Amino acid sequence: MLGEKLKAQRLSLGLTQQEVAEHLHVSRQTVSNWEVGRNFPDIPMIISISDYYHISLDELLKGDEGFMEKMKKDAELVKRTKRRKVFDGVFVGLLLLTVLFAFVVSRLPEVADQKLWPMLVVGVVFIFSIVRFFIVIPKEDAVSGMQAPLIIPKSFGVGWAINPYHPLGKVLLIGIFIAIEVLIFWG
Q: What is the pLDDT of residues 23-46, one digit of tens each?
């Protein structure tokens, strides 16, 4: 629908795909892909197109279900990215405070158990990693959500991870956490 409107308006203005592409600073192939519905322009580009074609945004966008779905997904991605950045900042700050606290406490002569601070640091990192996953990855995500397998791509970095949404994944993660804490305490 959007593609058809873009093509019709371009033709009514007597413009070629190349002329539009040059004005919008994109390739001719990009304009072609928009017109045939292979992909959609982003919001800033839609505004530029609307201005260039002398057509209102309302007229351009109304009735296109595919484009509206893309906009919803893009908005959700932006929200998840913002949440991840805020969470990562809080995580780094809390981790630094934990390490600083552990360092200061480990220097006190009255602290008999020197294994407390590594257990605390590992606990904070582990718990924040799991909480981060739940904040960043929606349950409905096909790759890492509720319907995903036990082993999934990491939510950050490269490699594989245990899916905390998976029922067995929860058990495994709790078991791994307890095992690491026990090894630190008795190691």
A: 999 999 999 999 998 888 888 898
CA pair distance 168, 146, nearest whole angstrom: 12
75-79, 107-111, 135-139: segment of lowest average pLDDT: 107-111
138-148: per-residue pLDDT in tens?
777 766 677 77
Dist CA 187 CA 179 (whole Å):
11
Structure tokens at 163: 């899916």
In this structure, what token pair is assigned to residue 17?
Answer: 């795909």
**Sign of the CA dihedral with 126 first, then 130, 131, and 136 last:** positive
Residue that has been written with the tokens 């580009």 in this structure:
45
| Alpha helices in 25-115, H assignment, sequence order | 28-36, 43-53, 57-61, 65-107
Q: Is residue 144 classed exposed, middle or buried when 0-12, 13-18 and 19+ CB atoms within 10 A define those classes?
A: buried
- Percent helix, strand and coil across the chain, each rounded to 5? 70, 5, 30
